[in-house]
Write a structure and sequence with these properties.
Elements (H helix, E strand, L loop, with lengths): L1 H4 L3 H8 L5 H19 L6 H11 L5 H11 L37 E11 L2 E10 L4 E8 L4 H15 L7 E4 L8 H9 L3 E4 L9 H15 L7 H16 L13 H6 L1
Parallel strand pairs: 1-4, 4-5
Antiparallel strand pairs: 1-2, 2-3
Length: 266
Amino acid sequence: MCEVLQVSTAGFYKWCRRVPGKREEANQTLLAFLLLTAEQEEGIPGYRKLWKAAVDEGFICSQNRVQRLLQASGYRSRASMKPGYQKPQPGMPVLPNLLNREFKVGKPNHVWTSDITQIRCAEGWLYIAVVLDLYSRNVVGWAASCLNSAELVKNALQGAWKKRQPTGSSLLFHSDQGCQYRSEKVIAWLHKRQVTISMSRKGNCWDNACTESFFAQMKKEWLSPLTIQSREETHLQAKWYIEEYYNTVRRHGTLNGVSPMAFEQQ
């Protein structure tokens, strides 16, 4: 691993034996208090209320510090806004709805759609991004993380690209207007591969109905009946549903009653 990461062996062991600094120890103590308080209140309070609780307990900290620690740990309040919601940021592009609800596609790797959902776990939230090929409704790429970020979308796209090897100039990629999809990192990644970008109209989930439907089915059929699990366990459950059941076994109504993989092999 040291050779792959280009790190000296001596440097690695020195890092393993390092003594945490005062700031790091203070952050760990503060985070432990915040997560314990959140657990005692059933995950209801947001970072502002948790910051107030920490100050009342005698911690010296700012709201930004509390928010940063909670975000890094993946904590998200039950009362928070739905995943992907962000206040509009000036300068971020909003592209037209080129897909225009034309969900019937005649060939593979011609139209991909994508979205992000969140699953509550014991430690907080797990965010899952998927890339769907509209031709067969096959999940051609997906990624999971404790952070809802542009990197999550990029990882899902990279997995899809590696698996399918499409021709970028003939591919349309459709998503909602979430800041992750409008980020410079994702836009640049798609432009580099000459992919045409399409985005749903603001507040109109029906423009991306196929991906929304996939997440609804995954939660209803598999994830929601389960008890709240750790992120690692939830990640494995999602992996099984997508790769071992949905793509290969689950019969799809719009595909004449066959699975996405079987439809592509016809």
